[in-house]
Design a protein that fits this description.
The complex is a heterodimer of chains A (639) and B (475). Chain A is mainly α and 639 residues long. Helix content of chain A is 70%, strand content 4%. Chain A is built from 26 helices and 6 strands. In chain A, helix 1 runs antiparallel to helix 2, helix 9 packs parallel to helix 14 and helix 16 packs antiparallel against helix 20. The longest helix of chain A has 39 residues. The termini of chain A are far apart. Chain B is mostly helical. A two-stranded antiparallel ribbon of chain B has the order 1-2. In chain B, strand 1 and strand 2 form a beta hairpin. In chain B, helix 1 runs antiparallel to helix 4, helix 3 packs antiparallel against helix 18 and helix 9 runs antiparallel to helix 10. The relative contact order of chain B is 0.09. The chains are: A mainly alpha (639), B mainly alpha (475). At the A-B interface, strand 3, helix 5, helix 6, helix 24 and helix 26 of A face helix 6, helix 8, helix 11, helix 16 and helix 17 of B.
């Protein structure tokens, strides 16, 4: 398969970033908007062409999809270990190309309307280009090292985009929080990479993932604290993934990141960057599955399931519509992780893997749609809060219909896209782990409930007294809504199991009617409850909340996870560690110097121009250090 | 011994000749044309740098007092490039501030003597030559630190440096004398045969180590750093943090990996402790700095801590990673100091707050600064990332997992304060930003070379392979 044109897919957004970034002020906003959209359109066409070529023409050899790699050695580290740079084409990377291209293109079109008149219009499109480039590079990476590089680039571009409204202190704080939390998680990733490269001598995905290869077969060769070193590495890599994919307890940055412009949330926090963690686990799936009987994979499953439930409960209580969507995203990401976690490898055993990727795909469409719909509403009423909305269906018909479609899709109502992918996830969990299955079904009900609470709250319910009557958004914003709504209906019918599977040999998936009925039943119950509570103005919801009392308050305050982190950082680290150091520095270091200064005041008066009064102190430190070290290494630390 | 064998001292001889030429030129160039000495010095040093790349034999002179090999030769070239960039970056400052006081030529003479001292130090074959090199490299710098005689802070920096340096070399000499007492020789080749681990040797080694640590500003021998950097002219702060530190790291590595290898069981623990202390103290103090020079001072302390991760290994891999990292560090730090220098020269502003909104008025300078800080912070795909990653891998290959983990923690802390500067330049508003200005040709060249250096080191991989090949001498 000829891969050279695929290189253009990431390079076009990079070129956009460079051109728009360097000639920032010299390009008219209208022109930069068109440049962004047309550049991404070319990337999108190329992505679809790649997908067509791969899935239907050249990709399948002897009934199995092949992996195509084109790479060059970038840096030789030692005689055996080297870093490559290249592109890797296999079912999941092609699928991700489609997701990124489609959503990015929609976001570009949408932003032309949403960001109109903004001072940094061109800069915004430049950042979007940088982000698209990094994300493409991430999914096309051929090895752990390359993926890490783009992983960090994605982090930086998302930092720039979340903090785009840099005059808003909250936005800047959120950008910083997102960067620091994900960076913290990335340590895990980096150390994991180090361990893997040392125990296997390679960064290469193909070599690592080969079930017959030494990386997988020799996992037991070294152990650390009861587990194989490779398992530790995989857990650490998963920590990196959990940071980007907002898994508990590293999720705290995602709700705050909603301070960024809404198109950014649709792109980064719904469809692309946040699924990077899921993609990473899927990319190394053979290792996760085969090393130490899938120990690391079970951790993935439980973390995913817990995050999914945890976020769904919080989502019910939020009043900022973007935050509801943020927690919903976290919950759905948990779903994907959970499906990966319970998956097997061969044939129908690997239904979890397939379902996870399928859900990633469908979720990208309808969640981007939900965010853009929310953006359209915010654009109209200039507020993020439910209390400022209500009855908007009359004013914004297109937003209303498309939002409804997306809400039905995420609630898993047939025949929309979410139904199909969710059903596969439930099948996978049912066959492997009934406990997780129970959580999954319950979350399905909760999802329908909070989503329709949102929908009824925005478009039905009691109308707020609008000062200026809200109106439908411009065509550039409604067009992507309509396209994504069509996709949210349509993509569910793709026979995904024939294209994307763990062993790369397709299988035929059937709808499991009893399971589907149960899931739809739970979804409908959630939907109906939301109908009763929120369709018309009434105090049922409040009474219900009161009945739950403390539990409700806990959930509303996100179970105080943020506060816990604040306690640890502010109270423990800043107060107990940094402050004493600063105090020590001020009181004793400075104090000692002042003391010496006072005693030698007479002398220092005379030679003031020459003597600073501090050098003695430095000399004391120098000698003291040398003597202490000498004593330690002569008498105490001898080996 | 015939005359041609002296040619292995080509670097030293050439530099000495250049210095003497400048001395003579100083006499003959009339006072109103003194600024031409700046051009002359840069021109001559440029030729010297270029000639340095000619191949050189590995051999030794004076009964082993002076020796050289390909890696040492390579490192002298690295120092030359660093000094050359530094001269380009200082040229405008010299023309505007120093030549007008009629003290331009001495600047070069002092600087070149100090560099000469470093050549001798890293080529040393015995402790005497090492000590002479150490002294020769330090004393002129103290004079240079006090070079802005109109500024009190500059004189203060000079005094602090000379006092601290005197103490450090005194302690170091004391240590050397103990090593002589236990081993009966000052020649490295002899010592390596007889050195054993006993209390007096260890005491001697630690005192000697303290003296060198002073030059690298390792904790707890770092106290002078921030004050001196802040007070000294920026060129000299840059010289201390880049050239002087680089040379000291290099000689420390040579000594640890050859003569002192039998004491490895002592020094690996010593370096372990000092690496941790240096990284943490450097980083924690850097967090609170407002003055850019002070900020870069603490940042360079922290960077020295990272370098120790490569030193702890004692292997070829360690040698290669240290040399590679030092090269990247030289370019990155020179770029950062260069920007600070350019801004300080035009506006006299040196605080972080003054940099608010710099991107709007001076986008190119801000981008260079960003590149430099990203490289120092180790953000991929900039060169600094590879430098750090390789150091960590080297340490991990010897099983120092905990040390690597704590170093990674430190990378994040450092990331925070490097981002502070970037945030100031790109995201902060400023009612009274630094106005747009154009740099003169020398400064521009000096900055462009650093940018090329950072990019090439990160992206052009055979260079690391070349260093790895050279590093076979120390393992």
């Amino acid at each position: 398969m000829n891969l050279s044109y695929i290189l253009l897919i990431p390079l076009i957004p990079l070129a956009l970033f460079l051109v728009l970034g360097i000639f920032n002020k010299k390009i008219k906003p209208a022109v930069s908007g068109y440049m962004g959209v047309s550049g991404l359109a070319i990337s999108t066409i190329l992505s679809f062409y790649t997908a067509y070529e791969y899935f239907f023409v050249q990709g399948k050899i002897n009934g199995a999809y092949q992996t195509f790699v084109e790479k060059m050695v970038w840096m030789n580290f030692t005689d055996t270990l080297h870093i490559d740079l290249g592109i890797l084409i296999d079912p999941i990377s092609v699928m991700m190309l489609i997701v990124i291209s489609t959503v990015s293109l929609m976001v570009h079109i949408y932003s032309r309307g949403y960001m109109k008149g903004d001072e940094g219009y061109t800069k915004f499109f430049a950042f979007l280009g940088l982000f698209a480039f990094s994300m493409y590079g991430l999914v096309l990476a051929t090895n752990l090292f390359q993926i890490y590089i783009f992983w960090e680039l994605v982090g930086i571009s998302s930092y720039l985009l979340i903090g785009y409204y840099y005059t808003k202190t909250k936005a800047v704080a959120a950008a910083k929080k997102a960067f620091i939390v994900t960076r913290f998680a990335d340590f895990g990733f980096l150390i994991g990479i180090l361990i893997i490269s040392f125990h296997t001598g390679t960064f290469d995905f193909e070599t690592l993932n080969n079930p017959e290869g030494s990386a997988i077969l020799n996992w037991a060769s070294s152990s650390f604290m009861g587990l194989s070193a490779i398992t530790w590495a995989l857990i650490l890599i998963f920590i990196g993934g959990a940071g980007k994919s907002a898994m508990f307890p590293l999720h705290i940055w995602l709700p705050d990141a909603m301070e960024g412009p809404t198109p950014v949330s649709a792109l980064i926090h719904a469809a692309t960057m946040v699924v990077a963690g899921v993609y990473l686990v899927a990319r190394l799936f053979p290792m996760y599955y085969l090393v130490e009987e899938g120990f690391a994979l079970r951790i993935v499953a439980y973390v995913g399931a817990f995050s999914s439930l945890f976020a769904a409960i919080i989502a019910i209580t939020q009043t900022d519509i973007k935050r509801v969507l943020a927690f919903s995203t976290m919950s759905q990401l948990g779903y994907m992780m959970m499906a990966l976690g319970v998956s097997g490898f061969d044939g129908h055993e690997g239904v979890g893997y397939m379902a996870s990727m399928f859900h990633l795909f469908t979720h990208a469409m309808f969640k981007a749609l939900l965010f853009m719909g929310a953006g359209s509403v915010i654009h109209a009423v200039h507020s993020n809060y439910l209390k400022d909305m209500g009855g908007l269906r009359k004013y914004m018909p297109i937003t209303n219909i498309t939002f409804l479609i997306a809400a039905l899709a995420i609630a898993g109502i047939p025949p929309l896209a979410g139904f199909w992918s969710k059903d596969e996830i439930l099948v996978a969990t049912f066959e492997n782990n009934l406990f997780i299955y129970g959580i999954a079904v319950f979350v399905a009900g909760l999802t329908a409930f909070y989503m329709f609470r949102l929908y009824f709250g925005i478009f039905w319910g009691k109308e707020t007294n609008y000062i200026n009557a809200p109106h439908e958004s411009p065509f550039s914003m409604t067009l992507p809504l309509i396209i994504l709504a069509v996709l949210s209906v349509g993509v569910g019918f793709i026979p995904f199991s024939e294209f994307v599977t763990a062993d790369k040999i397709g299988f035929e998936a059937h709808l499991n009617y009893p399971l589907a009925a149960i899931a739809v039943g739970f979804g409908l119950i959630g939907l109906l409850l939301a109908w009763v509570f929120y369709k018309k103005e009434n105090d049922l919801a409040n009474r219900f909340a009161n009945a739950f009392g403390v539990l409700y308050l806990w959930a509303r305050d996100k179970f105080y996870v943020d506060e816990l982190y604040l306690f640890i950082t502010r109270k423990l680290i800043f107060k107990r560690i940094s402050a004493p150091i600063a105090f020590f520095d001020k009181k004793y270091v400075d104090g000692t110097m002042e003391g010496i200064g006072n005693k030698t005041v007479v002398i220092s008066q005379k030679i003031k121009a020459l003597q600073s009064g501090k050098v003695q102190d430095y000399a004391f430190g120098f000698m003291g250090g040398a003597v202490v070290l000498a004593l330690v290494f002569i008498y105490l630390w001898t080996n | 011994m015939n005359f041609s064998s002296f040619l292995i001292m080509r670097h030293e001889i050439l530099l000495l000749v250049i210095t003497l030429v400048l001395l003579v030129a100083e006499i003959f160039i009339p006072n109103n044309k003194k600024s031409s000495t700046v051009h002359l010095a840069i021109f001559l040093f440029g030729i010297h740098t270029a000639l340095g790349f000619m191949a050189l034999d590995e051999s030794s002179l004076f009964g082993g007092m002076f020796h050289t090999n390909n890696l040492i030769h390579f490192f002298k070239n690295v120092l030359n490039i660093g000094v050359f960039i530094l001269l380009l970056q200082s040229a405008d400052w010299l023309q505007e501030k120093i030549v007008t006081q009629n003290r331009g030529t001495e600047f070069f003479i002092l600087l070149f003597f100090s560099l000469l001292g470093m050549y001798f130090m890293i080529s040393a074959g015995d402790f005497l030559m090492f000590y002479l090199g150490l002294e020769l490299s330090t004393l002129p710098v103290a004079a240079l630190a006090a070079y802005e005689i109109l500024k009190r802070s500059s004189s203060e920096a000079g005094i602090k440096l000379i006092l601290s340096a005197a103490l450090a070399s005194g302690v170091s000499l004391f240590g050397i004398s103990m090593l002589y007492a236990t081993n009966g020789s000052i020649y490295f080749n002899d010592i390596i045969e007889v050195i054993t681990s006993n209390n007096l040797t260890i005491l001697g080694f630690i005192l000697f180590f303290a003296g060198l640590s002073f030059k690298i500003s390792l904790v707890p021998f770092h106290f002078w750093t921030a004050d001196v950097y802040q007070g000294a002219p920026i060129s000299i702060a840059s010289y201390l943090s880049v050239i002087s530190k680089g040379a000291a790291v290099f000689i420390l590595m040579i000594l640890l990996f050859t003569v002192l290898k039998p004491l490895m069981h002592v020094w690996e623990n010593l370096i372990y402790v000092i690496a941790l202390a240096t990284m943490f103290i450097g980083n924690l103090f850097a967090l609170r700095q407002q003055n850019m020079k002070r900020f870069l001072a603490y940042s360079s302390i922290a960077q020295a801590g990272f370098i120790l991760l490569g030193l702890i290994t004692g292997t070829q891999l360690g040698t290669a990673t240290v040399v590679y990292f030092v090269m990247i560090y030289i370019f990155s730090n020179l770029a950062a100091f260069g920007v600070v220098q350019a801004i300080s020269l035009k506006t006299g502003k040196e605080n972080m707050d003054d940099y608010n909104g710099l991107y709007r008025t001076n986008p190119k300078l801000s981008l260079i600064m960003m590149l430099a800080l990203f490289s120092l912070a180790g953000i991929p795909p900039v060169a600094g990332f590879f430098g750090k990653f390789f150091l960590f891998t080297a340490a991990a290959s010897k099983g120092y997992y905990l040390l690597v983990f704590l170093a990674v923690v430190n990378v994040t802390i450092s990331l925070y304060y490097y981002l502070l500067v970037i945030r100031a330049m790109f995201l902060r508003q400023n009612d009274n930003p630094i106005p747009f200005f154009k740099n003169k040709i020398y400064m521009r060249l000096g900055l462009i070379i650093t940018v090329i250096g950072i990019l090439v080191l990160g992206l052009y991989s055979p260079l690391y392979g070349y260093i790895y090949e050279l590093s076979t001498v120390y393992k």
